[in-house]
Write a structure and sequence with these properties.
The protein is mostly helical. It has one domain (2-75). Helix content is 82%, strand content 0%. The chain is built from three helices and no strands. It has helices at 2-31, 34-39, 49-75. The radius of gyration is 15 Å and the shape is elongated. The chain crosses the membrane at residues 6-25, 54-76.
Length: 77
Amino acid sequence: MDIALFWIEKSILVAGIIFVLTSVTQYGRRSHDWKGVITMFYKRVPMSISEYKWYRLGIALLVCAVLLRIIVLTLWP
């Protein structure tokens, strides 16, 4: 059970990272503002709807992976 949860957690984490990187590259290609990519994490940048959807889904998956990690470490130390 814990091995399966380990691999599920890692796959959710990797998928979240890929989705965030997808939105970052889409924003960079569209706006040609690669400095804006760096400021994306602490300042508001004008993202399109599809970029924001990828970004929001990636962040949600990252949070789910962290929560799954906490649950796994709590129940199976």
